[in-house]
Amino acid sequence: MAWNEPGGGDNKPRDPWGGGDQGPPDLDEALKKLQERMGGLFGGSGGGGSGSGSGLSGKAVVVLLLVAAVVWALMGVYQVDQQERGVVLRFGKYYDTVQPGLQWNPPLIDEVTLVNTTKVRAVDFQEIMLTQDENIVEVHLSVQYVISDPDKFFLKVREPERSLQHATQSALRHVVGDTSMDLVLTTGREQIAADVKTRLQDYLDRYETGIMVRQVNVDKSDPPAQVKSAFDDVIKAREDEERVKNEAQAYANGIVPEARGYAQRQIEEASAYREQVIANAEGEAERFTKLLTEYRKAPVVTRERLYLDALQEVFAQTNKVMVDVEGGNNVMYLPLDKMVPKSSLGGGAVREMRVDSSNIRELTDAVMEQLRRDAAVTGGRTSRGGR
Questions:
Q1: How far apart (Å, rounded) are the C-alpha atoms in residues 382 and 214?
Q2: Fold entry, domain 121-223
């Protein structure tokens, strides 16, 4: 009955609890009536006959069972994300690994644990250990990994991360123990990281941890603090050595090509000189052959022409003239600049006569005539003195 349902002749709202006009209902009484009605639904004697009570009780049980079954079924529905995998345990024993999507497993029977298989996890390590040459180094290492096999990660090993830590320490000590201190501290870090990754993955596979190592990085490797200053000096000395080597190599790269170029130029110049000499010799030989042919045709003219050409070529570069005296055995060289008469000009300058090939013969005849005269005068004086 509704609260505002009219009842009686005065059209006033009737109390659903049967209180009439007696005011607000008693809370205890209301709860008592509700309990009586619920007891009638579950088989109690509630004012009806025994047959009707048992029928109502059976229907209620069926309804409750159906509702409980629906609720139980709905409790088993769950969602697996794309990055996850679900490990199913049935009565505590491994049953299946479910893939991403909407899944259902019977609740209270199966237990599902979701594991993220794409998330890259990272863990850092810092260890002090001995190298192959019995030196102490401190290595900082980081390992990045993912869960590749959820059921092994969840069931095979009790503490997979701790197993990863122990395996990493073992692999790192094994690799560093086989490496010299110089490589650990300088150029060998990449190779150490690769070797540690390979050995670590082998350990994890044998332990069946379900972990796959993605990357291993040697972040830092330092000598002990007690010898760090000395080691820094060693590193600086090696850097200076490399710098000097590079400078020497650069100098060699600049000098060697230059020397090779100079040598090649000398070879080319020698080859050119050889070709020039050969060509000149061949040309002279050819000219001599042709000249011989002309000489055989006219020996006197050719000989005279050769003589004059030779004299002209020789005396064209000098200011002296060679004169051959008839009947004498001496060849005289006379400076023509002293034999040419000089005249004073207005400003006191001296004008000299230039001698060239056009008047050389004329000048030679004049000189010869003067010599004859001097010889005749000298001869006459001698004859008179003898008398």
A1: 131
A2: Tetrahydropterin Synthase; Chain A (3.30.479)
